[in-house]
Every structure is written in C-alpha cells, then in structure tokens.
C-alpha cells in the first residue's frame, strides 16, 4: 500500500496532452434487470430489507450449487450482438478466487478465457458530431458481490470502523462486464471519449431492455484505465485502473485527473505505478489502492459446478433478429423525421430530451413546438430547480395538450407559460389550469371593442396619428388593451379591431 | 438383539408392507442397536431418534390408512454427515461446522423424506471426506465392526460401519475417489458410486465438484439398487445432473440374482492388480473371476495404461477444486468463528484464525496443495496437465469398454489396516484408492461387492461400467453375490464376530 502524498503534483491538462499521448481502456459493469439472480432463484430487488433476497445459493451455504439464469444469458448475448461481437459457440464459467466478506463463497463465478462475446466495436458520437469507433475486446457474464457497510468511525470507510455489516441482497445479481481494447488516437479528447462511450453504452442497455441502467443506483459502473506515452508511436505506457467511477461526469473527470497526475509523475522522471486507484467524487481526485505488481492471483479455473454454455446458433440468430434499433441510428432517423438541424439535434441529445420530444410529438405536437417547449421554458425550469428534464412533473402528453391550446388560439404564448407554471405546480392538466385560473384568451369581441375604444379615447394623440396613416402607435394601443384584459386578449385580433374602430 | 436389524432393507420393506412389523418397531430396533454398539463402533456423529420415530409413526399411520407408499417407506436409513439435512446438525466431520444446523435439505434427503424413510442420524467421516480411514474426522475414529482395532475405510467409514454393524440397513455415502467403495470393501458391505451426474449433488458439501458423487451403502446388491433408484435421477438444481432417466437398476439386480451371466464380457484391468495388492486380496479376486466364468461370463484382459497416472492427476484436481470449495468456511456466515488471540479483529484475521483452528491437518494439506496447483505460473504444469491425464484415463475406459461390458478389479489393495497405522504416511493412505480413483476421473459408475476374507477380514470385488450403464453393475454384482453366498451358505457378514452389546 502506498498512500498518495497529500500534495500530489498535477500538470495542467492541456500541457500534459501536448507532451504525452493518453491511452484509455474502460471496463463497464452493467447489472442485468432479470427477475432473479445469475445462479439461483432469489429475487433481484433494489432496496429490500438486508439479506431478504437470498437463498442458500446466494448465501453460499455449504452444499448449494449454481444454476445459470437463461434470461441473463439472453441479455448477455443481446449486448454482445449490439456491440457487434462474435458470440462464442461454447463458453465457460470460471471461478475467480479471493477472500472478501462480501463474496459469500470467497470466489466469484465469472468468465475467464472463454467469454460469451468477443471482438466487437461500438461507434461513439462526441458532442461535436465526431464519431470514434471503440473496439470491444470481450463481454462476459459474472455475479455481483454483496455490499459491506462499515459502522462506527467518522468516514464510513473500513478504517476506523467498529464493525462491518454485509448485505447479500446484491450478491449473485447478474452482471455483464464489457472490456474495451486500448482506445488510442483520441489525444486530448480522451476524457470526452470515455464519457461518451459510457453514455452510449447506457443508452444501448436501455434500448435493449436488459437493464434500467441507472447510474445513481450503481446499475452501471465503470473502471477507467489510463496510461500515457510520449508519442502515438511509442509502446503503451504503464496504466492505472481507477475503480468504480459511477457517473458520466466522473468518468470524464477521472481520466483528466489521471492524465494530469501521471504527466507530473513522468515529468519528474519517475515511473507510473501499475495499481488500482480509488475515485473520490467529492474532491475529484484518485488515490492509490492495491499495487498490481504483487499481482493479485485469482487462481482462475473452470467452474466445475457448471457445464459449458453452448448458445445454439438458432437462438443467437433469433436474438439478432429481435435487436431493437440502436440509439445512434434512432437518433439519425428522428432527426430526419423532425427536420432538426445538426446542432439542434445535438442539443436535444445532450439535454437528454430525445425520448421526451418523441413522446410529445407522438401525443400530437409538431416537432418544432415540442423542441421549443423542452429546450426552452422546461429546460430553464429544470436548470433552475437543479433536476433532470424527465424529473419535471409534467408529461409529454400535457405539453402536447398545452401546445394544442395555443394552436387553437385559446392561449397565447404568455398565457401558455402561465398555464405551464400551474401544471408544474401540480394544479392539474392544462385544461384544468386554464379553467381554474381563468386564463383563456378573451375572444368576446364586444368586451374587446369596449377596451379598444377606451384605449383610443385615453390616447387621442395616438388615435389621431393612426387615423392619419401612421401605424406606429398601434402597438401602444394594443399594449393598453392587453393590460386592460390582463393579457388574455389575442393580440392579432386586437390589432384588427384597433384598425376597424379608427375608421368607424 | 431384535432380528429386524438383521434383515436386508428389501426384506424389511416386505415385512412392513405385509403388516408383520411396523416402521416404529423397525426404527426403535435400530435405535436400540445403535445405543448398544455405537459406543464401540462410533459410526454416528448425531442420532436423531425423535425425528426418526416421528417419521416412522407417520408412515405407519399412512400405511394403516391405505395410502400407496414408496417400496422403502418406513425402512430406516443413516446419512453421511457431508449431506445437508434441514434441522439436523451437519458437520462434514469438521470442527469448522460444529453446531451448524442447515436451513435446507439436500435433494437426495428431500427424496428420502418424501419416500418416508426415517433418518436415524448422521454418520462419521474423514473431515470433508478427505481420507481413507475416517481417522481424519474431528470427532473421533470409527471402528471396523470386524475388528474394532481396525479402520472402517474412508471417508465414509461411518456409513459402512453402521450398515456392517446392523445399526442401519441403508446408508448414504459419497465417493470422490473411493469413499463409498473402499469402506464397503473393508467392512464386507456393498457400496455403489453412481455415474457422475446420476445422483444430485445439491446439498452435498463439496470436496471436489467434478468428482463427488453420492450413492448407496447397504448389505445387499438389491438394497443398493433400491436406494440408488430412490435417490437417483435428474435434479434441475444441479447443473451437472444428467437429464437421462436412470437405467433399471432394480430390475438388473433381480436379473443378476439368478446367477446367469451368459454372454457378459468381464474386462480384467491389468493395471489394477499385481504387486501392490495383498496376496489374499488377489487370491479372492481370482476365485471370484472363476465363479463368474462358471456362470457364463467371458473374461478378457484389458489394458488401461494411463491408469498409472490417475492417482497423481487425482491429487492435483481434487485438492485444486477443494481449495476453492472450502474457501467459504471462514467464520463470516456460519459455523465456527474464531477471533485472533491478540491484535486487531479484522475480517481477514478472523478468517485466518477460524480456518487455522477449524480445519484439521489433512484438510490444510489439501487446501495448500490445491492453492499451489492453481497459482499463476503453475496452473498449466499442474492443474492443466492433470486435466490432460483425466482425458487420457477417459479414453482408456472408452477403449476398454469396446472389449468388455464391465471392468473388474479388487476394490482396495489391502484389507482393513490398524487404526493409526498409516496416519503419518499420507502417500500410503492415498494408495488405498488406487483402484477406485480412475472411475471418479472418468465419471463412470462402480460397485464394490464382498467377495471373501483374508486373515478374517473382508475383501471387495469392484465392477465398473460405462457412464449411464449403472444397471450393468447391479447385474454382475448381484450374480457374484448370489453365487458366493451359495458357496458360503449365507452372507459374508454372518461370519463377522458378534459385537458386544453394552446397555
């Protein structure tokens, strides 16, 4: 164990990438959303009573044996196919042996030299539209560990804790681990590529329906490998592996941090230590963990309690035929259908608004109107409240309804925003808010004519000018009418009436 | 002594179904016998008298009500302590599991319970089934009923001794390298290791997953077949369980009892005999061959050249798997938990202290051996090479079964040795299994049938059959049993000295 000196030296990121070529590699673990665990019938549920979702198998009791969850294998094959991998004709499970209390058997059933999927690729689109092809080395199946909670002590970490509790509810939850080949040639965009890769995978998992893929629940976890080399022609440098980086933003930050840190180490003439490192979300730094050179020996060997897995080609082809449209292709199709410019579409994607807009359009709004609402008023609201768009308490259906009221002339833009505020405040549907707040556009000409006459009488100079053919002051009259009707008049109709009444 | 304990399971079952005896009477008779002789034999680690009597009473009531029952319903049984039994302590002969009461039943125990067999208790064994003498039990030696100063074989010495001493008509054993067959041979009883995958391993505390197999321990070949048929067959909870239906082992045993083996080819394995085998063991084997030949069997000699490497391969594969299977015994979730005498109480140190105190020497030896064999840099040379030998042994079997319907050999190279005699010489101990290990490496079934005495101690005759052809074991085994008993004028066990009943 080497503790990181508190005053870790960092080289400015841009400076670091001018002197060194970063190479990254990413291992992503995704928890599959199967009803039961990887190797037994225990239910998979989030947030249950500790150790309630267990059986003799997931507790690793003496005598218990694993049985492979076919649904999990199906999900793994779907992921493999979506990543353009070859699906093994025969693959095996292997035991990874290590002692740790959250691993009930003191070995994890995983796959070693015979993974279910291998040799694929995934195209990843960066924010500016650049596409980077990430090569996939393998995707394999394994079981998750339980969860340790360290009680007592100030930090919640194991050091200084009085005792620790283990919850095996997560033990045995099916995981697929996806391992990239070294990602080279992306230069200073490595952090951005890392983030976009994980984000693209997340979208893919959701599209495939294999996982809820909620980062905040740890459904998707990334280990980030970073190394530096003097030039793109040099051999790969020594890498570090930063474990459990669990948000998109953190993936990007962790790569940046490691590039800066390793550059400082190399600049000082020292060598990067091959080790695992811990990511600290709060401070945005990594610290040294296990040194990998006294190589953890997992004593892998084929799991003798399981027989080799032989996915039939018919099954694989049936799954291939079932693959849904991939997120990137879908985005291209939607952009075409909606007629958005590249930059507009990118903003929509980056804002996480694709599904919301799609649903809003499906509910009857025009693509332009849907984008206007979600990228405008709603984006501002979400931003002000510090929440994601999908967390706002308004549905795409309500937005479509609101737009319908505008299109039919019953609301103007200003009123529509007030109605939206009512919806967001939980006052009901747009129709209900309109009714409750009395916000409809005044379409009774009688009332409007009276208001126009009042306004013209109040501003005789303006009336005179308009009568003389100078239409400049019309706006002032309309403004007065709008004020008198508390904004509930249709401005276009008011204008028509002003011109009519002048002639009268 | 009640004569109910002297009956075979089949004969006792007949009495029960004919209403000539009740299961409660039969169970009580066996519990009495245990109380009378087990002080000297020490076959049992735990006797479950109340549960057994309750099951017996239930079976009697159901029988009285006219319910259709399993043929063995009401016949008591003993279960090796490596098999988990809900609510009954299960230690696998180890301190590390002392006091552990499993919350679930092994599949074979579920089947036994569903069929209404009262479980008398749990039998002694070498710790985690590692040994050939039961001397590696953490809870004391089991004594051979033929000579209380001698070993009952192992690891299933408790089950074999219980059956040989009439403490139970039936018992469950497990066989990783001979732990059912070698104890059967040295106690004059019958033991079958079924085809790998033929009996569910769910609920067997694993030593070596790719080798372990549970099977029957009985006094007659027919009883073994009846018990085999009860516990065998597919189990979805064991991925290595065979999907095939079990062959008709009971029919084969009844057919074999006619004593006619016309047209059956017996392959004598050249490599399983000769110098390392006690002369009397060899003599009994030759005599048995003659008897079988006289019954119409054809004897051919076959060679399995790679069997000479089987023991070495076994002692790499078995400890490798065991080192991993036994990792779960760490004081964190169940069983013994030892905190370090001084210094910080961390999980790692509790694990080390628990394993240090909880495991015996033989277990530690194998865990260390296996850990080493699986280590990076050694894996290919040790585990990898051993797996290749395993393939060669399988090929030898395949070639031999082209020439013969079954293969035959002495079960063990010697008769029962004295307690303590080989305890300090692991190699000598391991050599006891030289004739039984090849079957485990290849997954083929084997049976041991008593075939005589040498110096007043029983010898065993081993029959091996191709995978999934367990019925052949019973046909040949039952024939040999019938022919020899005709010569002897009764079962071999009848010539065993009577145990002193102390109560």
Automatic annotation (TrEMBL), chain A:
Residues 355-502 form the Asn/Gln amidotransferase domain. Its EC number is 6.3.5.-. InterPro entries: Asn/Gln-tRNA_amidoTrfase_suB/E, Asn/Gln-tRNA_Trfase_suB/E_cat, Asn/Gln_amidotransferase, Asn/Gln_tRNA_amidoTrase-B-like, GatB, GatB_Yqey_C_2, Gln-tRNA_amidoTrfase_suB_CS, Gln_synth/guanido_kin_cat_dom. The keyword Transferase applies. One of its GO terms (biological process) is glutaminyl-tRNAGln biosynthesis via transamidation. It catalyses: L-aspartyl-tRNA(Asn) + L-glutamine + ATP + H2O = L-asparaginyl-tRNA(Asn) + L-glutamate + ADP + phosphate + 2 H(+); L-glutamyl-tRNA(Gln) + L-glutamine + ATP + H2O = L-glutaminyl-tRNA(Gln) + L-glutamate + ADP + phosphate + H(+). The keyword ATP-binding applies. This is Aspartyl/glutamyl-tRNA(Asn/Gln) amidotransferase subunit B. It comes from Actinotalea fermentans. The lineage of its organism: Bacteria, Bacillati, Actinomycetota, Actinomycetes, Micrococcales. The gene is gatB.
UniProtKB/TrEMBL annotation, chain B:
GO terms for molecular function: ATP binding; glutaminyl-tRNA synthase (glutamine-hydrolyzing) activity; transferase activity. GO terms for cellular component: glutamyl-tRNA(Gln) amidotransferase complex. The active site is at 80 (charge relay system), 155 (charge relay system), 179 (acyl-ester intermediate). GO terms for biological process: translation. Its EC number is 6.3.5.7. Residues 25-473 form the Amidase domain. The keyword Protein biosynthesis applies. It catalyses: L-glutamyl-tRNA(Gln) + L-glutamine + ATP + H2O = L-glutaminyl-tRNA(Gln) + L-glutamate + ADP + phosphate + H(+). Keywords: ATP-binding, Ligase, Nucleotide-binding, Protein biosynthesis, Transferase. Heterotrimer of A, B and C subunits. Belongs to the amidase family. GatA subfamily. Allows the formation of correctly charged Gln-tRNA(Gln) through the transamidation of misacylated Glu-tRNA(Gln) in organisms which lack glutaminyl-tRNA synthetase. The reaction takes place in the presence of glutamine and ATP through an activated gamma-phospho-Glu-tRNA(Gln). This is Glutamyl-tRNA(Gln) amidotransferase subunit A. It comes from Actinotalea fermentans. The gene is gatA.
